[in-house]
Amino acid sequence: MTSVAPTFVPAAVRTDTPVPAVGTLARRDARTRLLAGLGLWAGLLVVTYWWVAGGGVQDLAGWASGLTSAGRLTGLLSADLLLVQVLLMARVPVLERAFGQDRLARTHRLVGFTSFTLMALHIALITWGYAAGKILATPGTLWQLVRDYPGMMLAAGGTAALVMVVVTSIKAARSRLRYESWHLLHLYAYLGVGLALPHQLWTGQELLTSAAATAYWWTLWGAAAAAVLVFRLGLPAWRTLRHDLRVASVVPEAAGVASVYVTGRDLHRLPVVSGQFLTWRFLTGAGWTRAHPYSVSAAPDGRSLRITVKDLGDGSADVPRIPTGTRVVVEGPYGRLSARARVRDGGVVLVAAGVGITPLRALLEDVDVAPGRAILLYRYTGTPLFAEEIRTLAAERGIDVRWLPGPRGADGGWLPASADGYDPVAVLRHWVPDVPDCDIYVCGPDAWAADVRRTALAAGTPADQIHVESFGW
């Protein structure tokens, strides 16, 4: 569709809301991450202690009993990590703010593969132990366990669902799937957890070793279920109804790129800030069930939100044809590519590639730095997005902009081909002499963003001052 783009006016800096000192929120989030990590390890130690207290170590003395005992331990650890996985996937705001989606996804992936490995060991060891240590008897014993023990048929179905999720999460398989298909299949993890764990409540002796153990497992189960119901289902539904979001216009930005302007009720109460993204569903056409993560590409002003979408297939290809007035369902906001992540009260470096400029374009409006202390390094092919807006903001806010046209260099680095032969670390230090004292925001494709991070680290920037959001899933 064709529409007229709203006139760009930089969002006014709010003076009625106290702004925490730079680094305050980052330190608070670091404490949250520390406490979350301690909580995870404490849970694993506690369930291991109950296994020991229940005679788990003594049972290791015999061959068959040792297999069964080891199987119980791996099952307990796997169950604990499965429920931790649910909490990581549940979009709990305190965790989202502290970790950000990229870091949560990496943690979720590590916890998930560890939990699945332990679950596979649990099944193998328990079955082998119940077969009196006779490996040839294990297939028949496994069938007997599934058929005769309470909850085991459900556990078998849950295990099958989790196997499907794990297989489609392997990088080689994931690269062959559309994002929409992968996202739908990944939701089966909830079904897998829901079916795989009840047998623990019915047949697991460790659950009944003490009142404390029983309380622990039921509390962890309840917390995981409540987190999903409240934060994955309830909060998005409430926000969508509360703000009555609708498409106001769709504006072409460049070949294959369009911006969507969304208006609604009391948008100043939607807690999204520059640099964050939301998951969007446009209730039109056949693709309304598919959720897509898009960053806001302009600072939220309380009246409208703007996202900018590149045609990468499937749902994104349909964006230019979304009718005005279409209802919008959102989840979020998510991500730490925002002023909240700043660690140092120094300069700010923003590094973008292609459509990765969208969250950084919004940050240009919001980042609180003195004139001359912010620099944007923007690599693009063809026509740069938001060129006039960026020039306007650069002039008004004293932001240094380095336009880096062209594809990536032959060496695969983050600089364009015109910089082939130059040391990227030396180039970064030349443009930003005080780079070790700066916060660096990076957004672009996975491999490119990883190369920017390596360059920044080599230039002396501490890891906690590098904030990356990539396009990988």
Automatic annotation (TrEMBL):
<dbReference type="InterPro" id="IPR001433">
    <property type="entry name" value="OxRdtase_FAD/NAD-bd"/>
</dbReference>
<dbReference type="Pfam" id="PF00175">
    <property type="entry name" value="NAD_binding_1"/>
</dbReference>
<feature type="transmembrane region" description="Helical">
    <location>
        <begin position="34"/>
        <end position="53"/>
    </location>
</feature>
<keyword id="KW-0411">Iron-sulfur</keyword>
<feature type="transmembrane region" description="Helical">
    <location>
        <begin position="182"/>
        <end position="203"/>
    </location>
</feature>
<dbReference type="InterPro" id="IPR039261">
    <property type="entry name" value="FNR_nucleotide-bd"/>
</dbReference>
<keyword id="KW-0472">Membrane</keyword>
<keyword id="KW-0560">Oxidoreductase</keyword>
<dbReference type="GO" id="GO:0016491">
    <property type="term" value="F:oxidoreductase activity"/>
</dbReference>
<keyword id="KW-0479">Metal-binding</keyword>
<dbReference type="InterPro" id="IPR050415">
    <property type="entry name" value="MRET"/>
</dbReference>
<dbReference type="GO" id="GO:0046872">
    <property type="term" value="F:metal ion binding"/>
</dbReference>
<dbReference type="Pfam" id="PF01794">
    <property type="entry name" value="Ferric_reduct"/>
</dbReference>
<dbReference type="InterPro" id="IPR017938">
    <property type="entry name" value="Riboflavin_synthase-like_b-brl"/>
</dbReference>
<feature type="transmembrane region" description="Helical">
    <location>
        <begin position="151"/>
        <end position="170"/>
    </location>
</feature>
<dbReference type="GO" id="GO:0051537">
    <property type="term" value="F:2 iron, 2 sulfur cluster binding"/>
</dbReference>
<dbReference type="GO" id="GO:0050660">
    <property type="term" value="F:flavin adenine dinucleotide binding"/>
</dbReference>
<feature type="transmembrane region" description="Helical">
    <location>
        <begin position="73"/>
        <end position="90"/>
    </location>
</feature>
<keyword id="KW-0812">Transmembrane</keyword>
<dbReference type="GO" id="GO:0016020">
    <property type="term" value="C:membrane"/>
</dbReference>
<dbReference type="InterPro" id="IPR017927">
    <property type="entry name" value="FAD-bd_FR_type"/>
</dbReference>
<feature type="domain" description="FAD-binding FR-type">
    <location>
        <begin position="240"/>
        <end position="340"/>
    </location>
</feature>
<keyword id="KW-0285">Flavoprotein</keyword>
<dbReference type="InterPro" id="IPR013130">
    <property type="entry name" value="Fe3_Rdtase_TM_dom"/>
</dbReference>
<feature type="transmembrane region" description="Helical">
    <location>
        <begin position="110"/>
        <end position="131"/>
    </location>
</feature>
<protein>
    <submittedName>
        <fullName>Oxidoreductase</fullName>
    </submittedName>
</protein>
<keyword id="KW-1133">Transmembrane helix</keyword>
<keyword id="KW-0408">Iron</keyword>
<keyword id="KW-0001">2Fe-2S</keyword>
<keyword id="KW-0274">FAD</keyword>
<feature type="transmembrane region" description="Helical">
    <location>
        <begin position="215"/>
        <end position="235"/>
    </location>
</feature>
